């Protein structure tokens, strides 16, 4: 029987790309599943055959229902859900327990139908030439869904205290360039394949059987949580340590002597699959080598996923600009994406931990194909990911009291929530102002200008010889107002655009904090349960003390990250507000000069 697939999201084919337009809910017959590049070949009910993005469909298969789990049993007066994650320290577990999902930070229960919690990625691309912010939805806690993503499902409050999937994980369709070029990579390693497939599941939100790998270090853990770090037996030693120092503002990361920077430029269109599929390649030049390297969007996406896996529990990693299927080769879209990739790279370059990491340095400075492949596979085999990144943190300060740790965590949570609300208000107001400046306001000035010119025509028709000066002046005044109308329509691109881009970046960055802070809140709760866990013989008194010490380490990392965030926030908002107001001053000074010129045309009586 031929393999069938159900369409999850509507897709409109681009002419000349051998693509097939499909509608949500439509059933397709898969004619070639091995096309590659994130595409499959399929036939619709009309007999038309073409390429469809693989993340836009789900294969129709029959699955046996999962057996219900056995009822939990309590231990004394301690609820079973409070102790389940400490089963690793009880007597031996079965091999079936020692499984976690590959390709993500968080282990999942060993059931094929475990749903993946997802968030929609940060912001939409421009939908029209006048207002690139027209897709912002001020009524939502999070930005509007990008093209082709799941809609109509309410997201849980990202600012609550519970652990959640990272809100910035990319959720859009993998339709642009979802495979590495043949000249970049040969046959994928098992680890890479597992990570890629698990990542595709996260992006599409599909319910599918997860790829599994053995995790012998922490058997028995069936869900994510900071206990992996709080009770681990061995910490990282040597050069992999990330120091935290006490500075004037409190705990700070160790900053490099020279600031890393890079330029994203020179986008060029390339093709693969004998010209069937196209992509855009960018040139990235770091200031450390001044030697350019070339990367496609897929490579940026790979870097983002690696950084999210490794640092996401301790450092907020903002999402990339969204993928887009239709119109992705248009000049305006390419320019907008390059600008946003540049902003993303600058933010990564400015972070002292990320900029010095091996995977980021590989992305900027690889020498050749062999160097890239070796570094890529090394990064994908890195075991210090998720909450285990805290094993590398080394604060040069005394341990903090648990109460102080909790107070700091709550303080940061309140601030980031309040700033998130403020940033969204700026984006909403800015969007409305942009629409007014490019729509109603220019039309009003044009009407005024036309009215003055029409009045001048009426006066001219009188035949009176002594009013030429007046009618000429009226005509010039009308033209002045028409010119002011054009200025209003063009001005947002010169000033408001940069203010909106800055706030959009911070909206994406702030969207990461609930999950990062949630890790710390969960760790605090586990330490608070220490006495119960000792009484239940789940942990020893020594392990309880180690947990308190390690949650202090986590707090130093959070404080260092918040101090880095505040430092960048002050710099960024100073810079963008200065630029905005300077351009506004120039704008209104130019208008004033034009009005003075029009005023001088009239005779003083």
Automatic annotation (TrEMBL):
Belongs to the sorting nexin family. This is Sorting nexin. Residues 175-185 have a biased composition (Acidic residues). It is a peripheral membrane protein. It comes from Gouania willdenowi (Blunt-snouted clingfish). Residues 260-370 form the PX domain. Residues 1-62 form the SH3 domain. Signal peptide: none annotated. Residues 130-146 have a biased composition (Low complexity). One of its GO terms (cellular component) is plasma membrane. Keywords: Cytoplasmic vesicle, Membrane, Protein transport, SH3 domain, Transport. GO terms for biological process: cleavage furrow formation; endocytosis; endosomal transport; intracellular protein transport; mitotic cytokinesis; plasma membrane tubulation. The keyword Transmembrane helix does not apply. A 1,2-diacyl-sn-glycero-3-phospho-(1D-myo-inositol-4,5-bisphosphate) binds at residues 296, 298, 337. GO terms for molecular function: phosphatidylinositol binding. Its main location: membrane. The lineage of its organism: Eukaryota, Metazoa, Chordata, Craniata, Vertebrata. InterPro entries: AH/BAR_dom_sf, PX_dom, PX_dom_sf, SH3-like_dom_sf, SH3_domain, Snx9_fam, SNX9_PX, Sorting_nexin_WASP-bd-dom. It is found in: Cytoplasmic vesicle membrane. Residues 94-198 are annotated as: Disordered. Residues 147-165 have a biased composition (Polar residues).
